[in-house]
Automatic annotation (TrEMBL):
It comes from the Eukaryota. This is Uncharacterized protein. Residues 1-22 are annotated as: Disordered.
Length: 37
């Protein structure tokens, strides 16, 4: 059904967003460490 498709789409979006956020956090931590040392 249409609603199921929309739910799946939202779920995919959320998964991708949290992955991107994780990468950004890792990158930020790396930059901070390099700036400190």
């Amino acid at each position: 059904s249409m609603q199921d498709l929309e739910k799946d789409h939202e779920h995919l979006l959320t998964d991708e967003q949290s992955e991107v956020r994780e990468e950004m956090t890792k990158l930020g931590n790396k930059i901070m460490r390099e700036a400190v040392s």
